Amino acid sequence: MCGRYRLSRRKQIIAEHFDVVPDDDDDWTPRYNVAPTQPVPIIRQHPKEPRRDLSLVRWGLIPSRAKDASGSAGMINARSESAAIKPAFRDALKSRRCLVPADGFYEWSRAGKTKQPCCFEVNDGDLFAFAGLWERWKDPSG
């Protein structure tokens, strides 16, 4: 996944497009520069029912064994060639997969000392999804 992306659609449009049941408690505003550690919507298979759920999570994987959330900003990309062998991603890859809806993503090109963001879209801005992993984590204080 990239380091920044865009999700400029409302929850209802995403729910219809991906045929998901949205969590009524979670709401977000469309954003054009989603960054690591921010709350982001994901789509997961419901564990007991034949449906997909849309819910908010914090972007940045916190391994279940971590003592604090400080390293989550650095854990935003699980590379396909190494996710199955890296301890931080291995268990989530086996059983905690999700979709991360988006309608654009950014890559940067360097021009001298400045970096210029370029936004990439699919089919003129249609919704798509990144493959994602999720993990449950509980702060040691509860």
What can you see in these coordinates?
The chain is mainly β. The chain has a single domain (4-133), classed as SOS response associated peptidase-like (hypothetical protein yedk fold), CATH 3.90.1680. 12% of the residues lie in helices and 36% in strands. The chain has helices at residues 11-18, 87-95; strands at residues 4-7, 21-22, 31-34, 39-45, 52-58, 97-102, 104-111, 114-120, 128-133. The strands form 3 sheets. A 4-stranded antiparallel sheet has the order 3-1-7-8, with no helix packed on it. A 3-stranded mixed sheet has the order 2-5-4, covered by helices on one side. Strands 6-9 form a two-stranded antiparallel ribbon. The model has no long low-confidence stretch (mean pLDDT 85).
Task: Tell me briefly what this model is.
This protein is mainly beta. It has two helices and nine strands. A hairpin with a 2-residue loop joins strand 7 and strand 8.
